[in-house]
Amino acid sequence: MKLKYLFLLSLLLFLVAFFIYKSRPAKVETLPQQPTITTTPKPTPSPKTQNLNPSHPLLILEHPQQEQIVSSPLRIEGKARGNWFFEATFPVVLTNWDGLIIAQGYATAQGEWMTEEFVPFTAELTFISDTTVSNRGSLILQKSNPSGLPENDDAYEIEVFFE
Fold first, then answer.
1. How many domains is the chain built from?
2. Would 66 be classed as within a structural domain?
3. Residue 106's domain spans which residues?
4. What is the pTM of this model?
5. What does the pLDDT profile of the chain (163 residues) look like in tens digits?
6. Which of 28, 65, 68, 75 is least buried, going by the fewest C-beta atoms within 10 A?
7. Residue 128 pairs with which residues in a beta bridge?
8. Is residue 25 part of a domain?
9. What is the domain-level CATH number for residue 132?
């Protein structure tokens, strides 16, 4: 009889140990954590300027160039056909990454503008840029359009980076 109780007690202990063993959470093997590598992305052309024709039939922008790093005051130089001007000027706009205008002014012809030939122009924009979100911006040279008719609108836009 003692042997029978000893056998049942052993069986009971074995079953309790077995259930405890099976009910514990499965061991999850963790891999060592890989080091985090951070890199500063190189400025890449945005989709809107990536395929932009570097020259315009009515305008040649000499400074600044596409994707150039610029700072204030920004000197703008180039040549435009006489019909780009009205009264020897045309509007120039500088925007930040979000399209917010941060500077605007007028480019001025440096010669006789009432011609169909290229006429040198200059402009200077003073601005303050907030580069906490992005250092990208756009320089937009707008054709003078005294009529206000949409069919006479034209513009030349390049992407720039603020210092």
1. 1
2. yes
3. 52-162
4. 0.66
5. 777 777 777 776 777 777 676 776 656 555 565 555 544 444 444 433 333 445 688 999 999 999 999 999 999 999 999 999 999 999 999 999 999 999 999 999 999 999 999 999 999 999 998 888 899 999 999 999 999 999 999 999 999 999 8
6. 28
7. none
8. no
9. 2.60.40.10
In a domain, 6, yes or no: no
Which candidate, 92, 127, 126, 120, places its Cα nearest to that of 106?
92
